[in-house]
Amino acid sequence: MAVIQKKICLLGEFAVGKTSLVRRFVENRFDDKYLSTIGVKISRKSLMLNSHTVNLLMWDLAGGDNYQGVQSGYLRGAAGALIVCDLTRAETLSAYERYLSQLREVNKQAHVVFLANKVDLVDRRAISDKELKEAANSLGGQVYLTSAKTGINVELAIETLAKKLI
């Protein structure tokens, strides 16, 4: 059985739920207290995929324009990325392209999966399925509707990315 270690980065605007998604995946818990990530927070989780043990090093990067120059250093060595938007804030969808471009500047071969988080907040949804599909298709990736709060599709999306890495 092979053991593989891969670095993946979570990218997206402030408060889209990157930290909550990592916490849901790694610790299977949710905390609705918002704490902004400053710089980077690294978590680790092992998965059994096919006949491989995949150790994921998950780099949760601070979002927003203030960290754009710093992020390129954090992106070095990333085998993949989860790029996240917030379904309740339409302006976060346009960030998909910016974060993908930033990743591609550092690593043209990195695999990407797009997440549309907060699907549980149905009454506040501001981005349609059609808009999500169009954005993901134009950027060449899959999109998953996720909820860090309920856990919907979180593991599936991250496992999808992990499978692309082996």
Comma- or semicolon-separated keywords:
32% helix; 166 residues; alpha/beta; 30% strand; Rossmann fold; six-stranded mixed β-sheet
Description:
The mean pLDDT is 91. The protein has one domain (2-165): Rossmann fold, CATH 3.40.50. The chain has 5 helices and 6 strands, in the order βαββαβαβαβα. The protein has helices spanning 18-27, 68-75, 95-106, 129-139, 154-165; strands spanning 2-12, 40-49, 52-61, 80-86, 111-117, 142-146. By secondary structure, the chain is of the alpha/beta class. The protein has a 6-stranded mixed beta sheet, sandwiched between helices. It is 32% helix and 30% strand. A hairpin with a 2-residue loop joins β2 (40-49) and β3 (52-61). It is globular. α2 packs across α3.
Give me the secondary-structure topology:
Layout: E1 2-12, H1 18-27, E2 40-49, E3 52-61, H2 68-75, E4 80-86, H3 95-106, E5 111-117, H4 129-139, E6 142-146, H5 154-165
Strand count: 6
How much is the average pLDDT?
91
Give the oligomeric state: single chain
Major beta sheet, specifics? 6 strands, mixed
Low-confidence stretches: none
**Beta-strand content:** 25-35%
Strand order of the largest sheet: 2-3-1-4-5-6
The CATH architecture classification is 3-Layer(aba) Sandwich
- Could you name the CATH topology? Rossmann fold
At the fourth level of CATH, the homologous superfamily is P-loop containing nucleotide triphosphate hydrolases
CATH secondary-structure class: Alpha Beta
Number of domains: 1
SS summary, helix count:
5
* Fraction of helical residues: 25-40%
Give the CA-CA distance, first to last residue: 13 Å
The Rg value, from CA coordinates, equals: 15 Å
- Give the SSE string: EHEEHEHEHEH
Structural class of the helix and strand makeup?
A: alpha/beta
